[in-house]
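Long-time lurker. I teach an intro course on protein structure, and each term I like to show students one example going from raw sequence to a predicted 3D structure in token notation. This year I'd like something fresh instead of my usual example. Would anyone be willing to generate the tokens for the chain below so I can use it in lecture? Attribution to the forum is fine with me.
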Amino acid sequence: MPRLPYKNRDEVPDEIRAALDRQRERTGYELNLSRMLAHSPDFYRGFWDIGGYLLGRSSLDPALRELAILTVGHLAESAYEFEHHVAIGPRAGLTREQIEALGDWGRSPSFDERQRAVIRYAWQVTERVHVADSVVDGVRAFLSDSEFFDLVATVAFYNLVVRVLEPLQIELEPYLTPSPSLKGRKPSH
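-- Reply from a regular --
Happy to contribute to a lecture. Here you go:
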């Protein structure tokens, strides 16, 4: 049960109502996250501006972006975040095997060194905030300055996302169900 009620389209400013309508046209539904963020129209706008950049205009390879986001969602045990990006992952170039192997990424042959470096980075930021030089060096070996910045921004933003989703107990939309392996399985490193 969410800790605040979801806003309905008739309770929000016209600009947000139009955004919810566009979301419904694109996907067939309104995200519960959007309906919750509508409690703060200014935050809503800023949130989706940053999210739109990271998902649509970032210099970071989409598959690497999704590995970073899935790692954050997995570590936070955020079914909402994780399942939405399980759906996005294959469109970004991830395989089902990679998504399923995320809990054992350190040993799984499903990932190359570049992907492992990104997962390691996302894991360390999410779990520890402070990142070891060796972990940064690992991703810097593969990423340009702008790609590295976009990785930093992606991991930071999705840590914000899970810290909004979980305290507010935003529910997964009915068409998605939580992966049984999400709870209690921290990605290995």
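Some talking points for your students: The domain at 9-56 is CATH 1.20.5.810 (Single alpha-helices involved in coiled-coils or other helix-helix interfaces). The chain has a mean pLDDT of 94.
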